[in-house]
Amino acid sequence: MKIHSQNAELAISQQVIGILRAGLGQGISAFEYYHFQLYKKPATSWWQYVFDYQLPYFHSVYQRCEPTAISKQFMLNKGVFADTLKSAGGRSVATLDIIELNEPWPINDWLNLSRRVFIKPEGASGSKGCVCLYGTDNWQFEYQGGVYSGEAGLLALKALLPKGNYIIQPCLENHPQLHVLQQSNKVITLRVVTCFDADEPIVVMANLELNNDSNQRMDIFAINTHDGRVQFDDCFSNKCDFDSSIPIVLPHWGDVLVEVVKAHQLCSDIHTVGWDVVITRDGVFLLEGNVNWGMNVMQMVRQQPLLPLLKKASSRYLQSY
């Protein structure tokens, strides 16, 4: 028992030293140190990980040249993104209206065009400012876990939303084959990363992002980019009551690859992009592209560092930064 106790104390002291070394030497948080199990790896291999605290510096270093104003608008303005993609034959979500926050909102007109409506800021990224609207008799607005009803709810909601223009779109519905993966009817998104290094974009990696309403978080799983297979763990499979030994193949995966490559060809001067994609009964739709896409989640679901994978996609990553 004494030997076991000494070994445990030694392991703890080594981990404390490791945390200090990671934090003071490379700025790695204790959360990242344990989540990536860096205590099991030699410190000389830690540099192969790319952590979110290194963003956007990491992306900007390998971007090299400043993107054109056209590419920036394509990435930053959701209205420009949708129109440009559509004109190139890509699949973007239809725009029902574009309206300023403080203007009167013709909500019944929107609901006559679509029974569920998605409202999002024209120039923002992520979920901030994104609202789901439904209910013709009594308007219901879903925003950041809360529900606001009727005219009073609209006024309360507008007080919370960022100022600016908003794009109004129909809410997308998940492909029927994906319903088994989550209890919520919220849209399931894919994050697909492409890299434009030579003559055409290539797909580097992809994740499936599922809504978990029980803890207000996401269940995220890696996608095999070659065939669209998703391998779920036993815990998740048991919750959804399907066999984890049988990978699920995402429908329309070939179309996903075509759409993200087509979109990246429209901004070929941007080195890497993280695309948000939705698979519906009617096919594949692109929501937006992200230049400063996050690294941690990609590494967490794969339990391996990202830099070796990026090096295979682009010779730029062979150079130190």
Number of helices: 11
Alpha-beta classification? alpha+beta
Poorly predicted sequence stretches spanning 5 or more consecutive residues: none
Ends: how far apart? 48 Å
Q: Widest sheet: strand order?
A: 1-6-2-3-4-5
Identify the quaternary structure here: single chain
- The total beta strand count reads 13
Q: Radius of gyration from the CA trace?
A: 22 Å
Shape summary: globular
Let me know the largest β-sheet: 6 strands, antiparallel
Q: If you average the pLDDT, what whole number results? A: 88
Q: What is the H/E order? A: HHHHHEHEEEEHEEEEEHEHEEHH
Strand content: 15-25%
- As a percent range, the share of helical residues equals 25-40%
